[in-house]
Design goal:
single chain; 123 residues; mainly alpha; 2 domains; 7% strand
């Protein structure tokens, strides 16, 4: 499992860890019952506090992405297709929103944006 921490980012480190693990689960890189690195191992690899990793893991478990078995480790939870689909939809919505804001800042009207979108969808 690959995690890259950007210490200059305004996003808290535990959220960066969560976001990257979620993305790997959604993409299928991490599958049901795959074990995550231990809190201590990931903290040591990333040179961050174990409490930061624990917070990320606890939040992932609360959101249903992982399951922790005391004394065994943290595992990827059984896939919930609806949750994954909703997460993917949210990402697409965010990307579209950014694109629309950029188009508007370039002076395109909503009608021109719709026409571009329809043109692209035809391909």
């Amino acid at each position: 499992m690959k995690i890259i921490i950007n210490s200059s980012s305004m996003v808290p480190i535990y959220e960066q860890i969560m976001d990257q693990i979620k993305a790997q689960i959604i993409a299928g890189d991490l599958k049901e019952n795959d074990i995550l690195p231990s809190v201590r191992t990931l903290a040591k690899e990333q040179k961050i506090s174990a409490l930061t990793v624990k917070k990320a893991y606890d939040n992932l478990e609360q959101e249903g992405y992982t399951v922790t078995v005391h004394g065994k480790g943290t595992y990827v939870a059984a896939a919930n297709p609806e949750r994954i689909k909703e997460e993917q939809r949210r990402e697409v919505e965010n990307d579209l929103d950014k694109t629309i804001q950029k188009a508007r800042s370039c002076g395109l009207t909503d009608q021109e944006i719709r026409e571009l979108f329809e043109l692209i969808m035809e391909d």
